[in-house]
Amino acid sequence: MGNKQDTNWNYGWHRHPNASQPRRVEVGGSEGWHFGFNYTDWALKNGPFYLGDTLVFKYNSTPHPHSVYLLPSYRSFLTCDLRWAWKIADVNQGGGEGFEFVLRWWQPYYFACGEGGGFHCSNGTMKFPVMPLIHWN
What we know:
single chain, 137 residues, 4-stranded antiparallel β-sheet, 13% helix, 20% strand, Phytocyanin domain-containing protein, electron transfer activity, Phytocyanin_dom, Cupredoxin
C-alpha cells in the first residue's frame, strides 16, 4: 500500500476564484431585470453563488413594471404560483442602485417577477433558482 502523502484528496471540489469574499452580482449583468431575458440560463452561467453574495436587481418601472418575488418551493417555482410567495421588491425599488438581496442562508432561493399577472414568470424567462454554496476556506 502506498504512502498516505501520495494520496491526492483535492479532487472534486473547485472553488470560485472570489469565493473567500462575498460578491455583488447584478442580476442579468448589463441587461438588468427585464422581460424576455432567460435568467435561469444567466444564473447557470454566472454561478456558483456563495453565502454572503448579494444579488442586485436593477429595473426601470416604466414602460413595463417589474417586481421581485421569492417563491417558497420548487413546485411554486415550476408553476409560477405566487399565492404563497413573498414580494421582496416592488415596481419602484429597482431604480438607481437597484434592489439588493443577500444570500444569507444555505437553502435554495427561487426568484421571479410577479408582474403581468404572473405572465413574466410563467413564460419561463423572468425566474431563476439559486443554491448558494458554503465557503470552504
